[in-house]
Amino acid sequence: MSSIQAPLRPLSTSEGFLCGGLAACLAVTVSNPAEVAKTRMQLQGELAKGGGPKIYKNPLDVFAKTWRNEGIRGLQRGLAPAYAYQARIIMSGAASGAVGAALGNPLFLIKARMQAYSPSLPVGTQHHYKSSLHALSTIFRAEGFRGLVRGIDAAILRTAMGSSVQLPTYNWTKSQLVTRDILPANSIWTYLASSSVSGVCVCIVMQPADTALTRVYNQPTVRLPNGRLQGTLYKNPIDCLWKTFKAEGSTAHFLRIAPHTIITLTANDIIQSLYKELVIKRWS
Q1: Residues 6+ apart with CB under 8 A from 114
Q2: N or C: which terminus of the chain carries fewer CB neighbours within 10 A?
Q3: Residue 129: enclosing H or E segment and its boundaries?
Q4: How far is it, in rounded angstroms, from Cα 117 to Cα 124?
């Protein structure tokens, strides 16, 4: 007669953060080339009537031209600050997504600028940094602390909008698939389907703020008579969205957000399941 197996204990807070961190870093690695493409497409034709002339025709064209002219280094520009940003978000995981975005703003700022930089086919304002540390020190020397928090209002808006729908739509979809016996609870297909629905919802809600964030981060600055540096194109994210809409019409760059959401949520569930089987079950 086989004994009844005791249920596994739930993951601790630190274990949950560890699994979530691994999932986020995996998602960043896979989705970073798409982030580079998204950033460059968001910046080309900036405030030009009708979007102006296009260097890149579509996301695949960005991949092809970046690979041909810059290689793998070009496709993975900004990867180091992207890792650091995810680590910062995880460290502030007990706080809200908006607080995490505010604390990680300097890292997201330099990531966007590094991804926009292209020595071959530049779009938007170009900021050339040798490394993440070089970027942080250059911005701090030129603009002080205000330079490192530039665009923080856009970052909070973007993250708050995305966080408001990401987990609720994921959990709701997963619950519907399981309770209606469409898919089993611990199936990778359940994770993929749920995260795909969540990714689409995040795209729709977050995209306008994401475009504003990229442009506010990357805009050129001018020094005022009082010594303060100010963006020359936008006052704030709302001003950016309004000017963009007036000049270019309704544009969308959904490329990166959905893959990142899908990979993060799916990988998080898989990693947690593996951790329970390989670590908690073995040592219980």
Answers
A1: 77, 78, 81, 127, 129, 132, 135
A2: N
A3: none
A4: 9
Tell me which residue has tokens 């810059």. Answer: 70
Does the CA dihedral 10-14-15-16 come out positive or negative? positive
Structure tokens given for 237:
């994210």
Distance of alpha carbon 248 from alpha carbon 241, whole angstroms: 10
Per-residue pLDDT of the chain (284 residues; tens, 9 = 90+): 444 555 556 666 677 767 777 777 888 888 899 889 889 988 988 887 766 778 898 888 999 999 999 999 999 999 999 888 877 766 665 455 566 667 789 999 999 999 999 999 999 899 999 999 999 999 999 888 989 999 999 988 888 888 888 888 999 999 999 999 999 988 889 988 888 888 888 887 888 888 899 999 999 988 888 888 888 999 999 999 899 888 877 654 444 455 556 666 676 677 777 767 666 666 65
Which residues, at least 6 apart from 149, have a Cβ–Cβ distance to it below 8 Å? 105, 106
Closest to 46 in 3D by CA, of 184, 236, 243: 243
Cα dist from 227 to 144, 146, 179, 218, whole Å? 11, 12, 61, 20
State how far the Cα of 39 lies from the Cα of 79, in Å rounded to an integer. Answer: 13
Q: End-to-end distance of the chain based on CA atoms, in angstroms? A: 21
Query: Strands, E, within 6-127: which ranges?
Result: none
pTM, two decimals, is 0.76
CA-CA distance, 82 to 112, in Å (whole number)? 9
